[in-house]
Amino acid sequence: MTCMVDSVPANVNLTLVTSDRDLGCRTPYPGLSGRWMTRSRSKVFYLNLRSPAQWLRIWRHQRSAGPFDLLYVNSVWQPGFSLLPVLATVLRLVAARRILIAPRGEFSPGALGIRSRKKRLFLAFWRRVLDRRDVVWHATNDREAAQIRALVAGARIVVCENETLLPVEPSPPREHGDASLRLVFISRITPMKNLDLVLRALQSVSRPLTFDIYGPVDDPSYWRECQRLCDELPATVTVRYRGPLPPAEVRATFARYDAFVLPTRGENFGHVIAESLSVSCPVVCSAETPWTEVLNGGGGVVLSAMSAAQLSRVIEGMAADSPAERYERRVRAGGAYRSWRARKTMPSVLDLVRTDTFAGPTGTPSQRRAVRVPE
After folding, report:
1. Are residues 10 and 50 in the same domain?
2. Are residues 235 and 130 located together in one domain of the fold?
3. What range does the domain containing 317 cover?
4. What is the pTM of this model?
5. Less crowded by CB within 10 Å, the N or C end of the chain?
6. Alpha-carbon distance 301 to 66, whole Å?
7. E-assigned strand segments in 223-357
């Protein structure tokens, strides 16, 4: 949310509706639930999804403020913040001339492999609903654009990397004198992020190390399986669950570790990977992200196979490194981030949609009518 609000183009008026609490939290942000706030030039409403009164309030506001030029939703499947707003637009309960949908990696093979039948059946129905409106899809790279095109025939796609407010220069690596390796996982605890693969890999590591887990439990049954795997780890491996981490503390937390391990089943961007590299923390990652080139260029390790055996060998090798070798690995991670950040000059996705600079069904740029944006 912060990136979207703070990087919105000067000629765009943004109204943002977001949750009144962090993912997995039962309590809302203090003093924000059901309230409008102003940030920069944008209006932000903090919504309790279980409050009918707040839903009525936001609907009345949208009806009086519309018509909007664009409804932008982040997810295909999320009920409250994606499906319901899109359906309200299709039924003309909310006036929006165009809909922009960002799947955020939900169409990757790894994501579709989780509850695949249910997702494909729903998508067959949902495509018919979307055909009734002017819909554009937001992909953050060419691979995600191909995944969208494979599932949505004739999709119009804008390809634009996510905005980021991360610094241009990485934080210098810290000196760590510990003899044992320190690994970290910071993400939602869900099958998509593949934490269980890390725990299975650690069962075969013989050298001492510490592995800290941060993140909200998005799937309780999956977390119970991960806890069972934790109980089977050798005595040389110390695993600690640290709970959810406030966004403002993510980068400082990464800086305390030798590597971030994320064998994800798929990321359309992976902002958390950029956060890790921005403080010179190397990343051990699957090949299912846009970061393969950066990581192979010094930012970390890309797994050629999604297997516990290979991940175990990578971790064993890192655990065998001396403190000086781990420090050098962090230096290279910072350098890889610096090179990536220097190349990042993409325009805002809102600018591209406003000027209709997006790909047609064959992937070629398409120029159509412009969308008016309020001055």
Report:
1. yes
2. no
3. 181-343
4. 0.78
5. C
6. 48
7. 237-243, 259-262, 283-285, 300-302
